[in-house]
C-alpha cells in the first residue's frame, strides 16, 4: 500500500464525503422511527444500517451514463435523469459493452483499494465513509481538519 490515492479513488472519496456532509441524521432518525411505528413487521428491529451513498449513484456521478429512456431518447444524469434503487440502471448497448466493463471494473477495484485503506466501508448497496476517510477527504479538498 505504498502507492498514493489514484484520481478515480479521490473522486469516489470526494463524492461519498460530499454526500455525508449533506446528511441530516436527526431527520433520517425521525423518518425511520415513523416508518417502524407504522409498520408492525419492522417493530423490534434496530435502527437500519445507513450508507452514505449507493454504488449506482457514485457510478452515475463519475461517468454520467444515461440510465433513463424518456421521450424516445436516453437521458443522462446531467440532463435530469436519476438511477433506480434496485435493478439494472444502464443499457450496455448504448454505453458500449467494452466501456461499461472497463469502467465498472475500474470503479470496483478503486473501491476495494479504498476499503483496504479503511477510508470507506461497504454497507451492502453503498458506501459509508469512515472517520479516517473524512480526514483524508478534507485534506484532499484542502479544508481544515478538525
H/E topology pattern: HHEHEEHHEEH
Largest sheet, described in full? Answer: 3 strands, antiparallel
Round the Cα radius of gyration to an integer and report it: 17 Å
Number of individual domains:
1
Global mean pLDDT: 79
Number of helices: 6
* Measured distance between first and last alpha carbons: 26 Å
SS-based structural class?
A: mainly alpha
Q: Which residues sit in consecutive blocks of at least 5 with pLDDT less than 50?
A: none
State the strand order across the main sheet.
Answer: 1-5-4
Helicity range: 40-55%
> How many E-type strands?
5
Using the alpha-carbon principal axes, give the shape: globular
User: What share of residues are in beta strands?
Assistant: 5-15%
Description:
The protein has helices at 7-21, 25-38, 55-63, 92-95, 97-116, 131-141, and strands spanning 53-54, 68-70, 73-75, 120-123, 126-129. By secondary structure, it is mostly helical. The protein has one domain (7-23, 51-141). The longest helix has 20 residues, at 97-116. The radius of gyration is 17 Å and the shape is globular. The two termini are 26 Å apart.
What is the strand and helix layout of this fold?
Elements: H1 7-21, H2 25-38, E1 53-54, H3 55-63, E2 68-70, E3 73-75, H4 92-95, H5 97-116, E4 120-123, E5 126-129, H6 131-141
Antiparallel strand pairs: 1-5, 2-3, 4-5
Helix pairs in contact: 1-5, 1-6
Amino acid at each position: 500500500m505504498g502507492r498514493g490515492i489514484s484520481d478515480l479513488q479521490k473522486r469516489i472519496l470526494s463524492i461519498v464525503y460530499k454526500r455525508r456532509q449533506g446528511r441530516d441524521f436527526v431527520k433520517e432518525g425521525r423518518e425511520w422511527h415513523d416508518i417502524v411505528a407504522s409498520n408492525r413487521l419492522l417493530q423490534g428491529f434496530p435502527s437500519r444500517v445507513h450508507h452514505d451513498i449507493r454504488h449506482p449513484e457514485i457510478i452515475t456521478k463519475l461517468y454520467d451514463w444515461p440510465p433513463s429512456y424518456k421521450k424516445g431518447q436516453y437521458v443522462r444524469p446531467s440532463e435530469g435523469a436519476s438511477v433506480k434503487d434496485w435493478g439494472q440502471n444502464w443499457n450496455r448497448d448504448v454505453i458500449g459493452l467494452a466501456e461499461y466493463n472497463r469502467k465498472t471494473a475500474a470503479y470496483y477495484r478503486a473501491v476495494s483499494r479504498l476499503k483496504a485503506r479503511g477510508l470507506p466501508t461497504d454497507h451492502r448497496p453503498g458506501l459509508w465513509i469512515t472517520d479516517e476517510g473524512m480526514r483524508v477527504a478534507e485534506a484532499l479538498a484542502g479544508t481544515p481538519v478538525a
